[in-house]
Amino acid sequence: MPQQEVEVILLRQLASQLALPVIIVDPRGDLLYFNEPAEAILGRRFDETGEIRRGEWSSHFHPSDREGNPIKPEDQFLAIATDRAQAAHQRFWIRGLDGVRREIEGTAFPLLGQNGRQLGSFAIFWEQHES
Question: Which superfamily does 6-15+22-127 belong to?
Answer without folding.
Answer: PAS domain (3.30.450.20)
